[in-house]
Amino acid sequence: MPDASSPRWSDLQRPPLDAAALAAALTRDSSLWRTVDVVPEAGSTNADLIAAAGQDAPEGTVLVAEHQVAGRGRLDRVWTSPPRAGLTVSVLLRPDVPAARKGWLPLLTGVALAEAVGESTGVLASVKWPNDLLARDGRKLAGILAESSGAAVVVGTGLNVSTTAAELPETGTSLAEVTGGTVDRAPVLLAFLRALERRYLRWVEHLGDPIGSGLAADYLRWSSTVGSTVEVHLPDGSLLHGVAEAVDWDGRLVVRTEAGTVDLASGDVRHVRPG
Question: Model's pTM, two decimal places?
Answer without folding.
Answer: 0.92
